[in-house]
Amino acid sequence: MRAIRARRQERQEDLAAERGWSRPVVGDLENGRRRVTVADVIALCRALDVDLRELLRGVDDDGLRVLGLDRRRT
């Protein structure tokens, strides 16, 4: 999430304002200190204009397997 936001040259404050969140919420999401709901994931994909695969880039293989998103699948 942080890398996508950085590529878009957005600050945490920008993303927070777009989503109606506070800046600390964005920071907590980026640092893994906040649980992410399905609604959060959908909102983030929309706000960052990316699909789920892009949002999950960098998640380890075990994490993807738990989600049923094996890297070997197309």
Write a structural description.
- With 74 residues, the chain is an all-alpha fold.
- 58% of the residues lie in helices and 0% in strands.
- The chain contains 6 helices and no strands.
- It is globular and about 35 Å long.
- The mean pLDDT is 89.
- Compressed to H and E, one letter per element, the order equals HHHHHH
> What is the arithmetic mean of pLDDT?
89
Low-pLDDT stretches: none
Number of strands: 0
Give the class from helix and strand content and strand pairing.
mainly alpha
Q: Largest sheet at a glance?
A: none
Number of distinct helices:
6
Shape: globular
Secondary structure: helix percent: 55-70%
**Percentage beta strand:** under 5%
Q: Which radius of gyration do the C-alpha atoms yield?
A: 13 Å
Cα-to-Cα separation, first versus last residue: 22 Å
